[in-house]
Structure formats: C-alpha cells, structure tokens
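Predict fold of Nudix hydrolase domain-containing protein; 327 aa.
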Amino acid sequence: MGKRPFVQQNRLQYDSPMRMTASTLVTNEAGQMLLIQRHDIRTFDLPGGGLEAWELPTEAAVRETLEETGLKIRPLRLIALYHWPNEPNGYLSFYFRGELLGGSIQTSEETPHVAFYAPDRLPNRMLPMHRLRIRQCLAHEGKRPFWTTDPMTFLQKVGKIVLGRILFPWQRWQRRRNGQVAWPEPENWKMGAFTVICNESGAVLWIKRTDMNVWNLPGGGANEEEPPWETAVRETLEETGCQVRLLALTSVNSYTDEANLTFTFTADIVGGELTTGAEAAAFAWFQPGEEPANSIPQHRERVADAAGSGQTRFRKQDGRIPDEIKG
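Predicted 3D structure, encoded as tokens:
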C-alpha cells in the first residue's frame, strides 16, 4: 500500500522527501540559448536551482534565473518533468520554456560564466544528461509537458561518490577556511498525486473516505523515490480497484505552510472495476461545479484546473481540510 494522506491538525500530511528543482530554457532574438557554468563542477547547464519551502516551481524558475544570470524572465509553459532516483533523496526537476523580459547578464558566486550559445554549438563541458535534456526540451511542441525517469548510470554513481566524498567536502572546507557562509542544503519536499477521471457525460469520479465524512479525488502520498506519475497510478488503483492511463498533468499545487507539492493528472480507466475497501467507503460521479458541500475545496479547484486551457496550472493552496466540511 502507498502512503495514505493522514490528518494531523486538520491538514493532509505526506512523508516522501524529494528534492525539487526548476530550470528555464530561454533564447534571445538570435535563437541562442542562455547557459550558466556551475561553480562547483564547472559544467554548463540551463539556469536553475532548488525550490525553497512554499515556493511554486514557476517562482523558483524566475528567482534562480535572476540570481544566476541577472536576467528577468517569465515562464511560458512547462516542458518536462525529469525524475532522477538519486539516493537517499531523489530529484524531480521542472523544465520551463521562458521569455526574456530584461536585465543585463551578470555572473555570480554560483555562476562564474553566463552567456548565450547557439543550440548546435553547445559547450563541450556539459554533462550528457543535461545535454540530452536540452535537446529534448528544444524539440518539444504543444502545451502538454512530458515526464520521464532518468536512470542513474554506473558512471553517474561513480561520479556521485567522487563528488560526495572528495570534491564537495573540500569545497566546504575551503569556504569555512575563508570565513564564508556554507551553501544551504536543498529543501526536502513532501509530495502527493491525484487523478481526475471523467465519464462519458463529463462527470468526475470522487471517493468518500472511510476515516471521515469527506469526498476527495483518487490519490495520495508518494512512496520514497517514487515520481508523481507513478504515485497517481498506484494510489488510484489501491483506492478504486481500477487501472488508469494518465493523459495530462493539469495542475501542480504548493502548500502555503510547508514544503509540499501535489500533482493532479487527468486519466482514463483502462481496467478493473470500482471496489470499496479500507480507504474508500463509496464512489460517486459529480459534474464539475456540482460537488457536495463536504468535498475538499482544494480538490474542487484541481477539477476546475483540469478543465482549463490545456497548460499545467501552478497554484498555492492551503493544505488544511476545513472543519466545516467534516462530519
């Protein structure tokens, strides 16, 4: 069984630490791509970095680009989600297509070199994983993002050992010796995933919980190292008895009082049958906007987002379940 969201002080809790990053592909009028050189391993990559607590991926993309390059950008659309199972904490990386708004190129302590490069003349000093991601993002078309897991190769495992045991400790020692503040550790994020399943008339499947008189969407918390698309499929099966095929990532929500991201996918049922059990007391199909009063309002917002423009919506939400909807 997956990690069922449980209620603590009237809120949904998940325990599945994942580190989140956001990067942005930005081009200038000549079609050249903005790249930065990392200060630690001296390789080139798109500007980006880790999400801070309560931050949306879109906000992190804007902040990191400004901090690392001096340039102001606006995220236009989500291109891809990459999961990298890097023990003990996996990484989930958001890649955006961005629009250049202004500013002037500036280097920083994190980025000793910043410049625009032609896509067919990328720097040689670039990790193969990052080079492949850039090519995939450049080739992406349409509004819907794609998602994938990058398996850790043998060379990456060896590199991780060298960096973690030799290079990074030496760099931290140098900073202490020079009286510099240590680099902050990346935030560990909790994570959950849900599905919006519609029938032929457009009504959405809802589950009545067994632990309280509340209706919510199928879904729940991620297991360790599990990407959200796998969580959505697994949790839906466990709670409904149905196998589903994911169609689109319609929303990503950041809780306002803790580092917690939830992902909502539209999905089709491809097998099984609705079956009540330990987590589902009953099922019902409600038209969007006609959900009962004791349905979780955050989930009603996610249903509305699923019927939107086709692009992934990013929204901050309160993670607490309102007292007035609980029986």
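Residues 1-15 have pLDDT under 50 and may be disordered.
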